[in-house]
Amino acid sequence: MIKQSVSVDKLIETARHCLKEGFVYPVLHTAVDYETHLELIYILRNLEQGDDRILSVILDANAPSVPSLTPWIPGLIFQEREVYDLFGVSYDHHPHLTRLLLPDKFRGHPLRKHYTLAEGEVTS
Amino acid sequence: MTPNREEIVQEELMLNLGPQHPSTHGVFRMVLDLQGETIVGVTPYMGYLHRGFEKLAERRTAIQYQPYPDRWDYLAAMFDEMAYIGAGEALLGIQAPRRAQVLRGIVMELNRFASHLLWLGTFLLDVGALSPFLYTFREREMVLDLLMELTGARLTYAYMRFGGVHHDAEDVWLKKVRAGIPYFRQRLSEYRTLIDDNEIFRRRVEHIGIIDGTHALHYGLSGPMLRASGVPWDLRWKRPYGIYAEIPPRIITDLAGDTYARYKVRVEEMAVSLDLLEIFLDLVESGPIMASVPKVVKFPKQETYFAVEGPRGELGVYLVGNGTAYAQRMKIRPPSLFNLQVLSQLLIGHMVSDAVAILGSIDIVLGEVDR
Questions:
Q1: What is d(CA B195, CA B221) in angstroms, rounded to the nearest whole number?
Q2: Touching check for A21 and chain B: CB below 8 Å?
Q3: What pLDDT, in 10s, does the model give residues A42-52?
Q4: Which of A43, A102, A113 is facing B47, going by the closest CB pair?
Q5: pLDDT at residue A124 in the model
Q6: How far is A56 from chain B (nearest CA, A)?
Q7: Which CATH number fits domain A2-120: 3.30.460.80, 3.30.1120.10, 3.40.50.720, 2.60.120.10?
Q8: What's the whole-model pTM score?
Q9: CB contacts < 8 Å between A and B, how many?
Q10: Quick check: B338 and A75 CB within 8 A?
Q11: What are the C-alpha distances in Å from B318 to residues B65, B82, B123?
């Protein structure tokens, strides 16, 4: 598995390049919180060769924002919603960016390291 | 006086299905927009069973977390354990001894068979056949009895450990498993005689919920959903782990991509599971069941992705270590969640009664979707 670092502005370009090379199968998309920064992980697979490719995008921890890849990789729709829900990363041009697992009125993003229970009380 | 056709007001009806609906297999909720009986819009809602297992992995040590994966997909807990343990072993550089590898293969195929039996029963219940449910549960209970004898639990086994398995299998137990296989095989062929060419069943499930191979790929479908659309991808042989590397490939595919194809793929996979069990039982040899593992397990500062072919598809774990006993991040790839992404494509244009059959054919387990 090759891990490739990509900057935010090059993400769409790189992803489209991967698609052209046959890496069309979305295996996984998630974020890792390192407190100083967030790392977004995209694992794409080429089923004919059986290869995986990992794209890694470093984001600012305070206001993470990234273009959505769903127009090119529709299999990321729920995954991007999940990362938005649990990490607070906002995806530009996502067709339906709402919380996936937690209630809509939930406050905070629990998979962030600085998250505390008091922050995340459900408000009615 | 009869009104003009144009004068009849047609409205869309919103129908809420779930989360406490027997046909949604747990706590899945979807809102259907209906025009008459035809579905024109689908909005899925999930998260009712969210228990924060990914956060828990950051707050528990690696050893403490070992029994938690059982609770992700409670119908096929062995696969969850294998995914987590496999990812951990890859990070730690531990390899389980051969006897443990074979035992893992045996319990996983038993578990796959049990999981597919439950699916078969409930799927037929969805399309209106009540009695198969009773028969498949009878057989499933026998498999669960076998697993209980080995591990002490019916569903949440906590059987696998970093570096091996927790309990050794007695020869008596292995003999019981071997004796059970011809019985299960016979029952399976009995089901197929009753169901495969049943006209009512086929008219309920054929040519509905079709997804083609290209779409299936782009949406990240896996398992029987993907293979029923003609893509021969099975991690057991495409990315062999453990004992599967030694087994000749037997990937079941179907080209139709409809609900009936998904039924056929799963049923044939049950037969493959029984064949694999026989092969694994021949491979059992005496030896240790645990490798030497340090008392305190610390994940190194690395990351890994490890996936197994569960009954529902590719169940993977992306694990990031940070040099402590706690994980920096543990992400589960739940196959049911990916498979649910195509729900609206599958449902739109069909009748409400088909919606239940199509949802049943996706085989979702909400414990895994919501985690």
A1: 26
A2: no
A3: 999 988 887 88
A4: A102
A5: 47
A6: 12
A7: 3.30.460.80
A8: 0.88
A9: 74
A10: yes
A11: 15, 13, 31
Q: Which residue in B has a C-alpha nearest to residue A85's C-alpha?
A: B47
Cβ-defined contact of B341 to A77 (cutoff 8 Å): yes
Confidence of residue B104 (pLDDT cuts 50, 70, 90): very high
Query: Among B199, B191, B357, which residue's Cα sits nearest to residue B267?
Result: B191
What residue segments make up the domains of chain A, in order of their start?
Answer: 2-120
Identify the residue among B219, B237, B346 best suited for mutation to test binding to A, counting A beta carbons within 10 A and taking the highest.
B219
Considering only A2-6, B197-201, B236-240, which range has the smallest mean pLDDT? Answer: A2-6
Question: How does B270-291 read in b/e, with b if 16+ C-beta sit within 10 Å?
Answer: bbbbbebbebbbeebeeeebbe
Q: Does position A117 have pLDDT exceeding 80, yes or no?
A: no
Q: At what angle do helices B352-362 and B98-126 cross, to 10 degrees?
A: 170
User: Where does residue B179 rank: exposed (0-12), middle (13-18), buried (19+ CB within 10 A)?
Assistant: exposed
pLDDT band of residue A119 (cuts 50, 70, 90) is low
Mean pLDDT, chain B, rounded, equals 88
Rounded to whole angstroms, the Cα distance separating A38 from B206 reads 46
CA A98, A100, A103, A109 torsion-angle sign: negative
pLDDT in tens, B20-71: 776 667 788 888 888 888 898 898 888 888 888 998 888 888 888 988 999 8
CA distance B278 to B96: 21
pLDDT at B293 over 90: no
Q: Which of B225, B277, B121 is nearest to A75 (CA)?
A: B225
**Mean pLDDT for the stretch of residues B293-305:** 88
Beta strands in B230-371 (DSSP E): 303-309, 314-321, 327-333
Q: Which of A23, A83, A100, A104 to mutate to test the interface with B (most CBs of B within 10 A)?
A: A100
- Pick A78's closest partner by Cβ from B58, B305, B341: B341
Distance CA A101, CA A105 (A): 12
Q: Is A90 exposed, middle or buried (0-12, 13-18, 19+ CB in 10 A)?
A: middle
Instruction: Measure the CA–CA gap between B139 and B194, rounded to whole angstroms.
Output: 16
In terms of CA atoms, which chain A residue is nearest residue B233?
A: A47
Q: Among the listed ranges A31-35, A111-115, B229-233, B313-317, which one has the minimum average pLDDT value?
A: A111-115
Q: Which domains does chain B have, with CATH numbers?
A: 51-342 (1.10.645.10)
pLDDT at position B3 is 63
Q: Is A52 on the interface with B (CB under 8 A)?
A: yes
